[in-house]
Write a structure and sequence with these properties.
It is a single chain. The chain has one domain. About 25% of the residues lie in helices and about 30% in strands. Strand 5 and strand 6 form a beta hairpin.
């Protein structure tokens, strides 16, 4: 897949395990990926609230899939949300 894509095409690429980004983003090195749904076990949790939730649910809890972003400053954002501009522009690329 080479070229520029719509948001819908970028979303499908995420579902296929690919990383995507907007050509129009100002930050260097930014991209998105899909973290799939998973079962989280209480003993894995460093977050005390998440651990409490898992323990109250018999020792594990189902986590829904989410879109994550590697930000321009190298940090990870979990639960990225698309703006209307992100959804309407056709400048999405597949990150290799």
């Amino acid at each position: 897949m080479e070229g520029l894509y719509t948001f819908g095409e970028a979303l499908e690429a995420l579902k296929q395990g690919k990383k995507v980004a907007r050509k129009g983003w100002n930050g260097k090195g930014m991209y998105l990926w899909l973290k799939p749904a998973a079962t989280i076990k209480a003993e894995w949790c460093k977050d005390p609230i998440l651990k409490d939730i898992a323990e109250a649910n018999g020792g594990e809890v189902e986590a829904l899939g989410t879109i994550c972003m590697k930000t321009a400053d190298g940090k990870i954002l979990t639960g990225w949300l698309a703006s209307q501009t992100d959804m309407l522009l056709e400048d999405w690329v597949i990150v290799r």
